[in-house]
Amino acid sequence: MFSKGLAIFCGSFLIAIGLNAFLAPHHLIDGGLMGLALIIFYAFNTPVGVSTLLLNVPVYLFAFMKDKTFFYNGICGLLCSSLFADYLFFLHDDLSLSIFESSILGGFCVGVGIGLMLRYDTSSDGVDLIAQFISKSWAVNVGFTILLIDLFIMVAGMQVIGWRAFCYSVLVITVGGMMITLLTATKRPPV
C-alpha cells in the first residue's frame, strides 16, 4: 500500500511538472484526457486539472460498472494528478527552454510519471485506465496502446495548437510512450 501511494505521489508530481514547466509554455499537448484538457486550456483558459476531472467522469463510471478494481486503482491517481496539475500552475513561466528541449523533458517527465503509476496498477487518466483494460484483455503492451490513443487525440487538437506545436507534441508523445513502455515492460518487484 505504501509503495502504491508513493508511486501515485511521485508519478502525479512528475506529470504536473511536465505539463506546467515544459508543455504549457509552448502550447504542446500530451495525449490522453489530460491532453484534451490541455487543448481546452489553450482554447478557453480552463484549469487543466479541473478539465481532466470532468473529462474522466464517463470513463470512471464505465470502469466502475465494468471492473471496480480498475476504478479503485485509478481514482486516487486521477485525483492526485489533477490536483498537482492545477497546484503547480505557477511553473508555466519559470523555465525558458527551447521548444525542442521542452518537448524532450516534458515527454520524459509525463512518461515516467504515467509509467510509474501504471507499474503499480494505478493511473492518472481515463485513457490509461482504458489502455490497462485493453492490455490485460488482449495481451497488448499498455505503453503501445497509450501511444496509439495519444496520437489520435493529437490529431484532434491540431486545429487549436497549430502545425509547429503539433510536430513537437508528436515528439512529446513519442518520448512519453517510450518511457511508459520501458517502465511497464517488466513486472514490478513483489511488495
TrEMBL record:
Supply the alphabetized keyword list.
Answer: Cell membrane, Membrane, Transmembrane, Transmembrane helix
**Protein name (record):** Uncharacterized membrane-anchored protein YitT (DUF2179 family)
* Transmembrane regions listed in the UniProt entry: 37-63, 70-91, 97-118, 138-157, 163-185
Q: Does the keyword Transmembrane helix apply?
A: yes
PANTHER family (UniProt xref):
UPF0750 MEMBRANE PROTEIN YITT, UPF0750 MEMBRANE PROTEIN YITT-RELATED
In what way does this protein cross or attach to the membrane? Multi-pass membrane protein
Location in the cell:
Cell membrane
**Which superkingdom, per the lineage?**
Bacteria
Organism in which the protein naturally occurs: Priestia iocasae
